[in-house]
From TrEMBL:
The keyword ATP-binding applies. This is Lipoprotein-releasing system ATP-binding protein LolD. One of its GO terms (molecular function) is transmembrane transporter activity. Keywords: ATP-binding, Lipoprotein, Nucleotide-binding, Transport. It comes from the Bacteria. GO terms for cellular component: membrane protein complex; plasma membrane. Residues 11-238 form the ABC transporter domain. The lineage of its organism: Bacteria, Bacillati, Chloroflexota, Ktedonobacteria, Ktedonobacterales. It comes from Dictyobacter aurantiacus. InterPro entries: AAA+_ATPase, ABC_transporter-like_ATP-bd, ABC_transporter-like_CS, ABC_transpr_LolD-like, MacB-like_ATP-bd, P-loop_NTPase. PANTHER family: IMPORT ATP-BINDING PROTEIN (PTHR24220).
């Protein structure tokens, strides 16, 4: 059994706080977050604008550090790693998606998906094989040679998902991945993310305002005033 499965937890945040200095005072953006995500678990994160979602996502992937508390990814404490080690962990074990696909419009779908593998200097034959496999996983095998600018918004988001998957990550983090899509296309992407997470045993955390995403997720966590609560609230205006 590999070390990843043995940990049984993809992400574990304990007592995470994050303070920002602001105008001579302090903003307590996160006030003690505890969160665990298991392999194959799809968790939706919901919260009003300014509630701390982006701050939390950045801390969970080691792009920002908590003021106090700890974050373990695949059993490794992010705070005890060097910046180089954190960058390597992100490159090898974490896939990221955003509201915009951020493709290079003049590169083909395949070339866009290959970018992370180029950065890790993978030999071209293997790179090509893995990128095609990732495009097939998102149903875009036949669009591999199309340029980014020739693809629809939904197809571009699928390419972004293929790019997030191409390294075979254990954890995918997505910030409003359906935010720019019409509802039908958003549904396709949501179901695809869910199936990929469940079938590939990948931990998935999506920050979202999209009701379909939080109704599809295995678990809904809600961030309010820098604290997490689990499940839907009676009165929910987020
Ligand atoms: N670099 C910073 N310096 C000072 N305050 C910050 C900084 N980044 C975030 N904040 C504050 O921390 C709080 C949480 O911000 P954050 O961006 O995490 O919220 P969010 O839930 O992602 O919002 P949105 O949905 O609008 O993206 C807000 O009050 C914000 O103003």
């Amino acid at each position: 059994m590999d070390a990843v499965v043995a940990t049984e937890t993809i992400v574990e945040a304990k007592g995470v706080t994050r303070d920002y200095p602001s105008g001579g005072g302090v903003v307590h953006a996160l006030r003690g977050i505890d969160l665990k995500i298991k392999p194959g678990e799809f968790v939706a994160l919901r919260g009003r604008s300014g509630s701390g979602k982006t701050t939390l996502l950045n801390i969970l992937i080691g792009l920002d550090s908590p003021t106090s508390g700890s974050v373990l990814i695949l059993g490794k404490n992010l705070l005890k790693m060097s910046e180089t080690e954190r960058a390597r962990l992100r490159r090898e074990s974490i896939g990221m998606m955003f509201q915009n696909a951020h493709l290079f419009p003049s590169l083909t779908a395949l070339e866009n998906v290959e970018i992370p593998l180029r950065l890790s200097r993978m030999p071209s034959a293997q790179r090509n094989r893995q990128a095609i496999e990732a495009l097939e996983q998102v149903g875009l095998g036949k669009r591999a040679k199309h340029r980014g600018m020739e693809l629809s918004g939904g197809e571009q988001q699928r390419v972004a998902l293929a790019r997030a998957l191409v390294h075979k990550p254990r954890f995918i983090i997505a910030d409003e991945p359906t935010g720019n899509l019409d509802s039908l296309t958003g549904r396709d992407i949501t179901f695809l993310l869910r199936d990929i997470s469940h079938q590939g045993n990948i931990g998935l955390l999506i920050a979202t305002h999209d009701p379909l995403v939080f109704n599809t997720a295995d678990r809904l966590v809600r961030i309010q005033d820098g604290l997490l609560t689990e499940g839907p609230l009676e009165e929910d205006h987020a």
